[in-house]
Structures are given as C-alpha cells and as structure tokens.
Design goal:
263 residues, alpha/beta, Rossmann fold, binds NADP nicotinamide-adenine-dinucleotide phosphate, oxidoreductase, NAD(P)-bd_dom_sf, SDR family oxidoreductase, KR_dom
C-alpha cells in the first residue's frame, strides 16, 4: 500500500506542529501549510531527517479566498494525493464586534469557516475515489461553552463542531471519517497572537493541556472513527456540564464567565 499523505494547516506552531510531528512519527507523508514558510521548512527538514518521510511545504495565507484552490492545485501538480486533512489553522480576535473593521472579521471567517469547508470539499472527491480518508477539524471547548461576549470565535467553532458531524454522517459509507477535535486551553502561541497572554497565565494550571496530549488523544479518536473528541478529563467534565444548560442560563454565564471580556 502506498504511504498516505496528510495536509496539515497551521503547522508552523502549536497544535498543528504537534500534529505534523505525530503523523510523521506514524509514517505518514506530509504537506505542511501556514504563512511562515521558514518555520515550515525548518520543521519539514527535522521530520524528514528523524522519520524518513516525505514532507512538502506550501506557504499560504488561508484568509485569502484563493488559498484553498492554490493549495490543492499545488498538491495535484506535485502528484500528492491528500488522504488526511487536518484543518487546524486558526486564531481568535479579542476586540469588540462593532469596533473591529469588517476586513478583520471577514478574514477570520474566511480562515476558520470558508477555508475549512472549501479544503474539505476539495479533498473529499479523491478520498471517495480511493475509498479512504480522514478529516480532523479543530473546533474548541468554546463550542460547548457559553457564548463569549463580543467574539466571533464561539460561533465559528460551533459551526466547525456541527459541520464535522454532518460530514461524518454523509461520508462514512465511503470510508471517510470526519472528527471535530475540541481542545480546551492548550499551551501554544494562540494567546500571544490574541493578545491575552497575561489573562491566560492567570487561569488555573489544571485547565491547561500540552499540544502533544491534545494531538495524541485526538488522533486516537480519528482512528477510532469518533465524530467528536474533547481531549482531557477536565475538558470532558466542562463540556458535559455545559451541554444541557438552558439557552438563557448559557447566555447569562457567557456574560459573567468570559475571562477575556475586558481584554
Ligand atoms: N490554544 C488553545 O487554547 C486552543 C483551544 C481550542 C482550540 N484551539 C484551536 O486550535 C487551532 C490551533 O491553534 P494553536 O493553539 O496551535 O495556535 P497557534 O500556536 O497560534 O498556531 C496557529 C497556527 O495557525 C496558523 N495560521 C493562523 N492564521 C493563518 C492564516 N491566515 N493562514 C495560514 N495559517 C494561519 C499559524 O501559522 P502562521 O502564523 O505561520 O500563518 C499557526 O501555525 C486553532 O484552530 C485554534 O482555534 C486552540
């Protein structure tokens, strides 16, 4: 059987870099995508040397509507079949909706909603033809938690949680499984990019996970065909506690508990 190839977006840092390392350690070839090409090249060189896998790099800004087509066209031109798609690239804004320029909000939606959906749509026909595929979409514990005031993030990650389950239902008869991976607070560059490092540092240590732990549990869920994975015991308890609460209570809690509402 030919070696399978995984496309990992947002592989230049955090959970995406950890996914790239984990998949290389399992013998998968890789196509790594993010904006910072030099980081991708350095990681690719390391993974080729350590695990003897093929590791291609393609620098792209996924907030550019042309990026998903550019990535899959590049893969096709290089003769790379995408068997595994890890839709991981993401970030969160922290400024109030009404104060944020539309271009910034549109870029977030393009990156975490449209690109996630379009990349899936572009790779599924090949997966169907080959009768095997795995798609991992990075959602978040935020998709289960009360809505965070002013942020698009909860809505975006709720979309990812829902669409992943719908796609899994549609595609599993074709040998394709789709998993929404929903981490809680994870050590990465996420809060530096968001500008909430100080607030994040004040949160209790038991709420935090390492990216490698998120990825190990997430990949196990993918291989077991689970449509949703909330990694870590504490996160599972939080998700379970949040699910049955009435909408009005969730709305109230979202306003009270959002640790970044004043950031
Ligand atoms: N950390 C957490 O607490 C947490 C919790 C739940 C869910 N998540 C989700 O997990 C995923 C990974 O986050 P992380 O924690 O690993 O954050 P991170 O360390 O900041 O990594 C984010 C990755 O996304 C890439 N990226 C961001 N904007 C991009 C763009 N416009 N085009 C292409 N790539 C882009 C970044 O690469 P470049 O900057 O090089 O482009 C980087 O590789 C995200 O979807 C996030 O929402 C994170």
């Amino acid at each position: 059987m030919p070696t399978r190839t995984a496309l990992v977006t947002g592989a230049s840092a955090g959970i995406g870099a950890s996914f790239a390392r984990h998949l290389a350690s399992q013998g998968y070839d890789l196509l790594l995508v993010a904006r910072r090409a030099e980081r991708l090249e350095a990681l690719a060189a390391q993974l080729r040397a350590e695990y003897d896998v093929r590791c291609a790099v393609f620098a792209a800004d996924l907030s550019d509507p042309a990026a998903p087509a550019a990535i899959t066209d590049h893969a096709a031109a290089e003769g790379i079949d995408i068997d595994i798609l890890v839709n991981n690239a993401g970030l969160s804004g922290k400024t109030a909706f009404a104060e944020t320029p539309w271009d910034t909000l549109a870029a977030e939606i393009q990156l975490m909603v449209t690109a996630v959906t379009e990349l899936s749509h572009r790779v599924v026909p090949g997966m169907k033809q080959r009768g095997w595929g795995r798609i991992v979409n990075l959602s978040s514990l935020a998709a289960f938690s009360p809505p965070g005031a002013s942020l698009l993030y909860t809505g975006v990650k709720s979309y990812v949680l829902n669409i992943s389950q719908s796609l899994d239902m549609e595609l599993k008869p074709h040998g394709i499984h789709v998993t929404a991976l929903c981490p809680g607070f994870t050590h990465s560059e996420f809060h530096d990019v968001m500008g909430t490092r100080d607030e994040a540092n004040n949160l209790p240590g038991l709420l935090w996970q390492q990216p490698d732990d998120v990825v190990r549990e997430g990949w196990q869920a993918v291989m077991n065909g689970k449509p949703v994975c909330v990694p870590g015991t504490v996160n599972k308890v939080v998700a379970a506690a949040m699910r049955p609460i009435p909408t009005r209570v969730g709305y109230y809690l979202g306003g009270r508990l959002n640790p970044f509402k004043d950031a």
